[in-house]
Structure formats: C-alpha cells, structure tokens
C-alpha cells in the first residue's frame, strides 16, 4: 500500500540530493586515508601493523553494522536515522582532525564508520521507495556515481593533499561538507519509507557481528600475515561458524534481522552472484595496479593515483547513462557487453611488462572501468526490482554486506596468488641464474641475496598471473550474465496473477 503511494508521488529530489552528499563524503573517506598511512605512521611513531587498523577497523565496523541496517531502516524514520548517522560521521571527522594520539585517531575512524555504514543502505532504500520501477534504472545510475566514483577518487585526492599538506587536511576538507549536510538534513529531510514496530534480536546482532566481522578481518589480513597465521584462520573459522548459526537462526524467525529468504527470488540471487564476482575482479585492479606501478615501475603515489582517475571519471559519466539504458533495454545486454570488455581488458593486464607505457596502462584501466560501469548498478537494480517492497531494506543490506565481504575475500585471494607465484618464480629465476652465472651471492647472515631485477621480474610474473585469475573470475560472471531476465516488481506480478485467476474463473 505504502509502496503504491510512493510510486504515485513526485520523487523527493531535494532529500535525495542531501543523502547523496552524505553518502559521497562517507564513501570518499573510506579510501581517502590509504595513501596517507605512511605519514601518519611517522607522525605518531607507530608500526605498519598498527596503522593498518585505520583502514581495517573502518571496514570491520562497516561490515558489522551494514547487516543490521535492514532493522534500523524499518524501525526508525529516514530523517532520524540519517541525522544520527551524519552526526556520528561528523563527530568522528572532527575528532580525527584534532587527534593528539594514534589511539584517538583510531577511535575517531571507528565513529566515522559507525555513521557511514548506515548511509548507503538508507540511500538505496529511499531510491527504491521514491521511484517507479520504470525509472529506477536512471535513479540508481545517479546513485552509481556516488557508489563507484567516490572510492576511486579517494587515492588521487589524498595523494595530492598529502604531497602538499598535512594528513589532517584529509579530514579538514571533509568536515565542512559533513557539517553542511547535517544542517540541511535537520531542516530539509522528510520521511519516505514506512516504519514497522519490530524488535531487534540481540543474539542475531551478536552472531552477525562475529560472523561478518570475523570473515572480514581474517580475509583482509591473510594477504599480509599469510594463511598459516593462527589469527587469520582462527577468525575465519569462528566467523564462518557464527555466520552459519546466524543464517539458520534468521530462517527460523518470523521477523529476522536480515531476511535470507529473499534468495528464493531467482533474479535477486543471480544479481548477488554476479555482484560478488564483479567486486572480486574490481578489487584486484585496485590492489595490484599500485603494487605494479609503484614497486616495480617506481612511479610516485601521486602519479599512481592519477593513473586511476580517468577510469573513475568515466564510471561517473557512464553511471547515469547506463541507468537510462537499463530502463530501456534491461540488464542482460548491458551486463554481457560490460563483462566482455572487463574480460578482454583483464586479459591484457595479465600481459603487461616492464616497458608497458604509462598511457597504455591509463587506457587499459579506463576501458576496464568503462566495462564495469555497464554491469554493477544495472545487475543490482534488476535483482532488487523482483523483491516485494517490504524486503527492500533486506535486499540493500544484503548487497552492501556481500560487496564488503567479497571485496575482502577477493583481495586476500589475489594477493595470496601473487605472493605464491612470485616466490616460485624467484626460485626458478635464481636456479637459472646459478646455472648460467654460477652460485648466487650470499649476504652477511649467510642467506642468498636476490638481485632487484630478479625480484621485480618475479613480482611482475605474480601480478600477471593474478590478473589472469581475475580474468577467469570475470568469465564466470559473463557466463552468469546470459541467464539474466528482465523482471517486473513483485506487486505487478501479483496483479497479473490475480487477473489471470479472475479471467479463468469467469471462463
């Protein structure tokens, strides 16, 4: 009933603009700090393992709170929820800017994350409620600008700021935008989505936090610490057990915290599978490219960030265009074309060498992002379109959670593949060098010293092999894309079923 009412009224563009700005600065902030970590490490005299928690901790809080966002969106009004989230984010940003010690900065990042975790699911839910299904593609295309462009711009912007100013400037430029958004929200925001008097199951929240948090932490640290680290496989095992228990509990509840029964809708299930595969493929380039250009090619962090900027701009431009094409043609044709481009460019990345030009890398990366811009939002929107309106909060929460988890898993998987391939290739090259040139040179401690040229060649081989694996992963998504069907929203399907029954009865 409420859904039909929303569909008949004019979409609240002013409210959506406020939500857009809030979500944009929150997502921008997620990747803004990565380039600045060495400067922060130096200022506060902390080790790399500690400073990494500024990124890992932010991701963990997101991973814990996003599954609970379905409950918050159904229980509390849009205005109260967004103002609370924006107030937390603003407070965290201010505290981070003034942080006198590393522990305070870490706490500030956690506070920021607690606010930003709610913004994306809330925005997606408002968009689904505010726009009729025939215009959702265009609306979600605009949303794609926020979802895709903000994280991609982060490294470039932070690289320039850190090069010219203190790392605190990263928070100083976000703070006034956050304050302005908060003020606008207090005076201009209205409620769009309906509320329900549901109760939070505390045990489900605990299981969800341990499950998703454990998996995210385990996989995100596996690339650095190795799979044989007790903290890595221990947290993954505990997380997996808690997650299985959480899912079983949700399936037994009449009003679950996160509704897993939405996977009975085939197009939503298919869209989730494709989104997971795409997230893994996308994160591969975001992680492997900086390693290649900075470590092997010696390109500065600033130029490394600029290399990825055209791709982010193309995705931003294409997102609303893709949305309009989705409304007209559906998701399958866009997904097939986009994934074909992604597969081809990923394969070319698996063939890059020591002398590949900077311009070639920019063109390849930009085309890869162009391909992905045709896939992510159309596929996700097509899946959400099949859900009943009451399940929209669960669908958006599920999609956002899976992107976080699959991104962490994909990163860990591809870094592990790269490291293992690099090690085996190093041994192979050293054996060849010893055969042709004699024994290798031993260091002061008696260990064999690996020449830089051999190490770089081995690492390049590892990166190429990881991109080849990424290509095969993208091929899986391409195959799945051929099974996409254009769906009608659940309430329209019900109308058609009732009409068919009535017609049969009359006959």
From TrEMBL:
GO annotations of cellular component type: plasma membrane
- Its transmembrane ranges are 12-33, 53-73, 85-107, 113-133, 140-161, 167-187, 199-219, 231-248, 268-293, 305-326, 333-350, 362-380, 465-484
InterPro entries (alphabetical): EmrB-like (IPR004638), MFS (IPR011701), MFS_dom (IPR020846), MFS_trans_sf (IPR036259)
Family annotation (Pfam families): MFS_1 (PF07690)
Q: Which residues form the Major facilitator superfamily (MFS) profile domain?
A: 15-489
Q: Mind listing the UniProt keywords for this protein, alphabetically?
A: Cell membrane, Membrane, Transmembrane, Transmembrane helix, Transport
Q: Which domain of life is it from?
A: Bacteria
GO terms for molecular function, please?
transmembrane transporter activity
Q: How does it sit in the membrane?
A: Multi-pass membrane protein
Keyword flag Transport = yes
Q: Which Gene3D superfamilies match?
A: MFS general substrate transporter like domains, Multidrug resistance protein D
Q: Where in the cell is it found?
A: Cell membrane
Family of this protein: Belongs to the major facilitator superfamily. EmrB family.
Protein name per the record: Drug resistance transporter, EmrB/QacA subfamily
Q: Specify the species.
A: Gracilibacillus ureilyticus
The organism's lineage? Bacteria, Bacillati, Bacillota, Bacilli, Bacillales
């Amino acid at each position: 009933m409420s859904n039909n009412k929303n569909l008949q009224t004019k979409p609240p563009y002013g409210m959506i603009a406020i939500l857009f700005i809030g979500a944009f600065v929150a997502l921008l902030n997620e990747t803004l700090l990565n380039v600045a970590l060495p400067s922060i490490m130096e200022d506060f005299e902390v080790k790399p393992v500690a400073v990494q928690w500024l990124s890992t901790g932010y991701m963990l809080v997101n991973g814990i709170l996003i599954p609970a966002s379905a409950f918050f969106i159904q229980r509390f009004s849009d205005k109260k929820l967004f103002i609370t989230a924006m107030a937390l984010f603003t407070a965290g940003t201010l505290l981070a800017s003034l942080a006198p010690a590393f522990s305070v900065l870490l706490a500030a990042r956690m506070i920021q994350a607690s606010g930003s975790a709610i913004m994306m699911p809330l925005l997606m839910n408002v968009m689904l409620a505010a726009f009729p299904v025939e215009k959702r593609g265009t609306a979600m295309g605009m949303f794609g600008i926020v979802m895709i462009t903000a994280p991609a711009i982060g490294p470039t912007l932070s690289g320039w700021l850190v090069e010219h100013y203190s790392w605190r400037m990263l928070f100083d430029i976000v703070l006034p935008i956050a304050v302005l958004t908060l003020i606008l929200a207090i005076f201009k925001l209205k409620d769009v989505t309906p509320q329900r008097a549901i109760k939070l199951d505390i045990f489900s929240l605990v299981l969800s936090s341990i499950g998703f948090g454990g998996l995210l932490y385990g996989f995100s640290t596996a690339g650095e610490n190795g799979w044989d680290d007790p903290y890595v496989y221990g947290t993954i095992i505990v997380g997996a057990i808690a997650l299985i228990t959480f899912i079983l509990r949700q399936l037994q509840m009449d009003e679950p915290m996160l509704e897993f029964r939405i996977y009975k809708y085939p197009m939503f299930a298919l869209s989730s599978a494709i989104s997971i595969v795409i997230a893994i493929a996308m994160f591969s380039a975001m992680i492997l490219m900086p390693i290649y250009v900075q470590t092997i090619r010696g390109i500065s962090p600033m130029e490394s960030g600029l290399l990825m900027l055209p791709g982010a701009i193309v995705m931003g431009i294409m997102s609303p265009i893709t949305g309009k094409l989705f409304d007209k043609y559906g998701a399958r044709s866009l997904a097939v074309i986009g994934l074909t481009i992604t597969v081809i460019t990923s394969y070319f990345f698996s063939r890059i060498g020591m002398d590949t030009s900077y311009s070639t890398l920019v063109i390849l990366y930009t085309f890869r992002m162009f391909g992905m811009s045709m896939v992510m939002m159309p596929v996700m929107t097509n899946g959400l379109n099949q859900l009943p309106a009451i399940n929209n909060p669960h669908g958006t929460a599920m999609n956002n959670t899976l992107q976080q988890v699959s991104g962490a898993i994909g990163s860990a998987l591809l870094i592990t593949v790269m490291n293992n391939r690099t090690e085996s290739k190093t041994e192979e090259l050293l054996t060849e060098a010893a055969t042709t040139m004699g024994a290798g040179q031993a260091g002061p401690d008696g260990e064999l010293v690996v020449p830089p040229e051999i190490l770089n060649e081995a690492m390049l081989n590892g990166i190429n092999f990881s991109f080849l694996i990424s290509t095969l992963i993208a091929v899986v998504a391409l195959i799945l894309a051929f099974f996409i069907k254009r769906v009608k929203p659940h309430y329209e399907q019900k109308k058609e079923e009732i009409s068919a029954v009535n017609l049969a009865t009359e006959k």
